[in-house]
Amino acid sequence: MALITLSLAAAMMAGGFLKGISWALVFGISACFQLCAVALCLFLTEIKADDKPERQTLAAHVRQTVGFIKSNHATRALMAGIAIYSGVVSTYYMFAQELLSDMGFTVAIVSGLFAVESLLSAGLSATAHVVEANSGARRVLLAAIGVSAVLFPLVALNHHLADVLSFLILSLIYSLFQPIASSVVNSEMPSDQRASLLSVMSFACSLVMFLIFPLAGHMADRFGAQRVWAPCGASAMVLSLVCCLRFYSAVVRSSNTAFPVPPPVE
């Protein structure tokens, strides 16, 4: 993941300078790299296993997953909290270029900010396991969501420094949140359901982004992007925080957690 982030940082920086020459050049070089990636994928082969487990039918697998989610309210709360946070912050990240451009920053400066953010995020993601081990997953996740709820209102200040700081800090917090949230999901969900539940959570995150994009775009055209993201982002963070608190409360209240695994490590 860190290598991918470093590659993105280099691409953002290069794109900012290439844009000064021509947007067509930016898209042309991007297309060439995409074609190279597709060509390399054609030569990938799947590792063959001698003993293949018995496959379950799709209908039976879906019924089992749906039944597990319906019978575990803590599972629903955790998945909803992570999906809301990831979906909203990811969408804000994509809108950030427009927000910074509206503040008067040139494309080269915006690309530079994204490149710096990517480099910092790569380093932070690589050390996320250290932060989790020292502070505990619950403290880190709840603190990340709480700080994000405070940062979103800064977007409405319409101030250069406030907008840049809120973008950088929110992006860094997201880089720390993602690997630790994945660690929590992997440790809290049973192995036979983990892959399916991760897929459901990924779908929920994509659904959140799918719903937010047109709504945020329409409201930004009417009221301005800063005025939209400040209350909407903060409200979404509060909702995500409530979901995660409900999950941890359910774990603390019961000696037998909602999952057949030990409770999360503090």
What series of H and E elements makes up the topology? HHHHHHHHHH
| Average pLDDT | 77
- Based on DSSP secondary structure assignment, what is the total number of beta strands? 0
User: DSSP strand (E) fraction?
Assistant: under 5%
Decide which structural class fits the backbone: mainly alpha
In angstroms, what is the radius of gyration?
Answer: 21 Å
What distance lies between the first and last C-alpha atoms, to the nearest angstrom?
A: 25 Å
What does this structure look like?
The structure is a single chain. The protein is globular. 81% of the residues lie in helices and 0% in strands. The protein is mostly helical.
List keywords for this structure.
266 residues; mainly alpha; globular; disordered C terminus
Describe the structure concisely.
The protein has 266 residues and is an all-alpha fold. The chain contains ten helices and no strands.
Show the helix and strand layout.
Layout: H1 2-19, H2 23-41, H3 58-71, H4 73-102, H5 107-126, H6 128-135, H7 137-151, H8 160-188, H9 191-223, H10 225-253
Helix pairs in contact: 1-5, 4-8, 4-9, 4-10, 5-8, 6-7, 7-8, 7-10, 9-10
